């Protein structure tokens, strides 16, 4: 093994690690007064890491030259695609945080450092080529996330969210670790390539049980049914900038990791896990849609929307083809933009005293008091519902097309029918905003950074976003090809 080459391949992770440790020292010496400086430096580090991984995606990096440390780490185009989404989402989550936390005098120096180390763990997750690397990245992300969920100490809901996330996350981690142990015991390897070689002649019952347990643990991380129970409570209770972070970057990392495990380690024996993924996909679509209908808190509604959208993305994974993987990656990019825009819009919903407004009924008549914010919210809701000509429609179309081309017509038909249910609660929000009598609750001013990020997200998912269809589609194809080269 060429150690110099391996160290070169992990340069983004080295950069984030060193910057994170230096910022820890700055936080220790400067205290909370240095929080803004630390946030700026953390954003700069994440943007720098984005530029460092971009060449691998643009150049279509794949094969042995992207393998580091005896195959434990993969710096291929697929990992680069995931890391770009992760790092940009984490940077945006840091940019929107100060305006929120300063209202509660709760902006702490450790907040950007926790986000930075969580992003580092997520980058390791999507680059994992071994079960051990997978677990190290997953735990690095999870340990930071547990603290972030309970970060707003003046709010009891935040403490409750952190505790629930920790307890259920520890359970899911144990389930995942048990599945990994079974797979190692029955294949004799922890590397994905070794596992793939060991099961090429057939799969034993022990490996099947291991796959089931691993999928259960991963389903928790992506908040898929039936391991979704933590999502509405944590999304509602956690500080809104943290919820924004949870809904974007960790979702990319967990879905990318699930794709890596299923298509890399078990790609040759897809029949072992396809039925499970089909069930989880349909259950997530239906439960997410039905669960959102009765919600009165907009953050809880977005939580069920997240579950619903994960179900649609898993349709692409269930197909187990390069086309399905590409469609899933394309949808993932549009989902990140829609979720980021949605939660930034929620951050901008404030009353005259600057307090957050989360009750959906309080948004009545928003179009007459805050017309631009109402328009942005409507664009996001229509896009999440998959209504053309918005970009969210194109993502759904691609995953359904991949399912049809892969012979899973029933899955595509059921998913399409269930998407109609989901459209109801999105349209309900638009109806309240545009057609109900004004409640005159949302009257607070918004931060300039919130407006800027919301504008970028809305332009991306608007009909103008279709100009990027070819470019983004090519990037998704390149990433999928790097992942599914061995299928």
TrEMBL record:
Its EC number is 7.1.1.-. The keyword Transmembrane applies. GO terms for molecular function: NADH dehydrogenase (quinone) (non-electrogenic) activity; NADH dehydrogenase (ubiquinone) activity; quinone binding. One of its GO terms (biological process) is ATP synthesis coupled electron transport. It is found in: Cell membrane; Endomembrane system; Membrane. The chain crosses the membrane at residues 15-31, 38-64, 84-101, 113-138, 165-186, 198-220, 272-294, 301-322, 328-349, 372-394, 406-427, 448-468. Residues 128-422 form the NADH:quinone oxidoreductase/Mrp antiporter transmembrane domain. Belongs to the complex I subunit 2 family. NDH-1 is composed of 14 different subunits. Subunits NuoA, H, J, K, L, M, N constitute the membrane sector of the complex. This is NADH-quinone oxidoreductase subunit N. It comes from Novosphingobium colocasiae.
């Amino acid at each position: 093994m060429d150690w110099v080459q391996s160290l070169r391949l992990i340069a983004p992770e080295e950069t984030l690690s060193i910057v994170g440790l230096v910022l820890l020292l700055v936080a220790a010496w400067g205290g909370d007064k240095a929080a803004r400086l630390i946030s700026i430096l953390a954003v700069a580090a994440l943007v720098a890491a984005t530029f460092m991984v971009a060449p691998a995606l643009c150049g279509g990096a794949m094969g042995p030259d992207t393998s580091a440390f005896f195959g434990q780490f993969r710096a291929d185009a697929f990992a680069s695609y995931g890391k770009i989404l992760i790092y940009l989402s984490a940077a945006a989550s840091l940019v929107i945080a100060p305006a929120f936390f300063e209202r509660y005098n709760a902006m702490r120096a450790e907040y950007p450092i926790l986000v930075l180390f969580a992003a580092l763990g997520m980058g390791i997750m999507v680059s994992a080529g071994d079960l051990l690397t997978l677990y190290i990245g997953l735990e690095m992300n999870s340990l930071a996330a547990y603290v972030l969920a309970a970060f707003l100490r003046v709010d009891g809901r935040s403490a409750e969210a952190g505790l629930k996330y920790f307890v259920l996350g520890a359970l899911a981690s144990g389930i995942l670790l048990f599945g990994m142990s079974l797979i190692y015991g029955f294949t004799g390897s922890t590397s994905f390539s070794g596992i793939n070689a060991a099961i090429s002649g057939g799969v034993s019952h022990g490996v099947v049980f291991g796959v089931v347990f691993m999928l259960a643990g991963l389903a928790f991380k992506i908040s898929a049914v039936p391991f979704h129970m933590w999502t509405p409570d944590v999304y509602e209770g956690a500080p809104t900038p943290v919820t924004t972070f949870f809904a974007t970057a960790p979702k990319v990392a967990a879905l990318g990791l699930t794709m890596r495990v299923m298509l890399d380690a078990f790609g040759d024996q897809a029949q072992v896990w396809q039925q499970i993924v089909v069930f989880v996909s349909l259950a997530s679509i239906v439960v997410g849609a039905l669960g959102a209908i009765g919600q009165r808190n907009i953050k809880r509604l977005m939580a069920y929307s997240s579950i619903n959208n994960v179900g649609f993305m898993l349709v692409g994974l269930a197909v187990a083809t390069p086309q399905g993987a590409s469609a899933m990656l394309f949808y993932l990019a549009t989902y990140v933009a829609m979720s980021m825009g949605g939660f930034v819009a929620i951050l901008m919903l404030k009353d005259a005293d600057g307090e957050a407004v989360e009750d959906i009924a309080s948004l009545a008549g928003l179009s007459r008091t805050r017309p631009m914010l109402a328009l942005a919210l409507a664009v996001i809701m229509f896009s999440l519902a998959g209504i053309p000509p918005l970009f969210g429609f194109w993502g759904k179309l691609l995953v359904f097309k991949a399912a049809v081309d892969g012979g899973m017509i029933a899955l595509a038909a059921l998913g399409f029918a269930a998407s109609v249910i989901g459209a109801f609660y999105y349209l309900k929000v638009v109806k309240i905003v545009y057609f109900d009598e004004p409640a005159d609750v949302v009257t607070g001013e918004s931060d300039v950074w919130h407006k800027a990020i919301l504008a970028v997200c809305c332009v991306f998912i608007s009909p103008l976003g279709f100009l990027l269809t070819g470019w983004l589609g090519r990037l998704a194809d390149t990433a999928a090809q790097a992942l599914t080269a061995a299928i």
